[in-house]
Design brief:
The chain is mostly loops. It has helices spanning about 10-15, 30-35; strands spanning about 20, 40-45. The chain has a two-stranded antiparallel sheet with strand order 1-2. The model has no long low-confidence stretch (mean pLDDT about 80).
């Protein structure tokens, strides 16, 4: 599964994040999700989160 915004591969933790209201998968990596985190209520699986909370892909996003 890939992030809908930046197309990076999602971790298990990121791939299981769901909207608390619609119960649909959010399908955003942690980096892209951080932009909408305050606006969305989600249900996630903290047991699947990496210790550092980051994705395997550490390259910065280029919005230019």
């Amino acid at each position: 599964m890939r992030c809908l915004s930046c197309d990076c591969i999602l971790t298990d933790y990121e791939a299981t994040r769901k909207s608390a209201h619609t119960n649909q998968y959010v399908d955003l990596c942690n980096r892209c999700f951080s932009y909408v985190d305050e606006d969305l209520d989600v249900v996630d699986r903290p047991d699947l989160e990496h210790e550092d909370g980051e994705t395997e892909d550490e390259e910065p996003l280029d919005f230019s």
